Amino acid sequence: MTTERAGETRQFGHRARLALTPAQIRLMDEQAHAARTLWNLLHDWWTMLPKDKRSLATADTAIRRARGEIDWLAVLPAQAAQAVLKTYFLAWKNCWDGRADAPNFKARIRRVMSVDIPQGRDLNITRVHRRWGMANIPKIGRVRFRWTRDLPVGKRADKENRITGARLVKDALGWHIAFRVRTLEARPGPHQGTEVGIDAGVSLPLALSDGDHRDHGRPPRLPDGRADRDKWLNPREKAKLLGLERRAAQRKQNRRRGEKASRRLRHTYDQIKQLRATATRRAVDWQHKTTTSIAKRYCTVVVEQLNIKNMVKSARGTIEEPGRNVGQKSGLNRSISQEAWGRTVTMLTYKTARHGGTLHKVPAPGTSLRCSACGFTTPGSREDQATFVCKNPDCGWSGNADWNAARNVLHLYRMGHALIPTAGRAVVRRPRGVKPATAR
Predict the structure, then answer these.
(1) C-alpha 14 chain-centroid distance
(2) β-bridge partners, 26
(3) How confident is the model at residue 437 (pLDDT cuts 50, 70, 90)?
(4) What is the C-alpha to C-alpha distance for residues 46 and 405, in angstroms, rounded to an integer?
(5) Which residue in 294, 312, 403 sits closest to 349, CA to CA?
(6) Which pTM value belongs to this model?
(7) How distant, in Å, are the alpha carbons of 109, 253, 255 from that of 260?
(8) For residues 326 and 315, is the Cβ–Cβ distance under 8 A?
């Protein structure tokens, strides 16, 4: 007698840092460039052949022949080459369905170097000790990776909990391996927490309607009031970054127009990229930890529907009508982009669902200017970035401006102003018989 396991299958990715030898790094770079070149050759083949001769079988035959005749293309494993072919055809399918643009040529620079490992059984993962694990990479050998999360390997792996594949990705910090994990999780029950509204800001990253807040643990602005572009770096790293940027600017001045960058200049650019990548990793880590704590604590999370693309538009204007406060707006746009509000909302969306909660969005206009105590919007109530003092003679409430906006966000949801996607667009819904409140 067999019993079905209650739960639902979930797929997620886990990224770990690789510890490679110089010889392994050289081999992986060769494989990544071969995969990129194979994509470009496949793209040329697709665009040149007539439509009636394009097929998956014909492309597979051409790839097998090319790998047998071209030595530098044969360094790519056969399964990785098949993964390039499947990815290319999937890109065209997404284009035909209107989900993406048509695939194009992959240049050598400004491209993410990656190699796919479609079969999880080829990895043969073992855990060496508490901090490190070992995995087998085709045509590379055994490599070490940082063990930061328990993976379903060995006796813990079965049909429902296993690693289905991986992808090798290179960024400014080196090579990483991204595992594709399939696991069976129990369906979460209804969340027993409370409701909360969240206002995303620049000076205060996340303000909650219950008076709590989530900040970065360090001053987000410099003493002179300017936005700190490198707030995720410590003082020593900031000084190093400033020196590298000055060195790069000096070496760039000595380069002639159209001349290729020198080896020293490229090395300086690589060092700058490493520091930028370190700051990005710390920011993403903070977002993951913060959104996880919010999803575990609250049953309903309400956020604003923000059009970030319009919010970060330049104020430069035109020659006939030049913009005003262009420098200040540029700094604000940079700060908004660094906070990555869209990524925070994406994390909250799937994490609240994973813990049995829900996430809702409400219209954003007026939430930061309306008083959460009396419900009126009085000019001049928002005195500065962090202070809100209601100018209504019958109210006079004062408090933090971001906290006030978070309370307005939660109130809009309770009044039924949640945005419900219908026919591909968002509409405002209010329960029948409920009128907008003018006082709380």
Answers:
(1) 14
(2) none
(3) very low
(4) 53
(5) 294
(6) 0.80
(7) 13, 13, 8
(8) yes
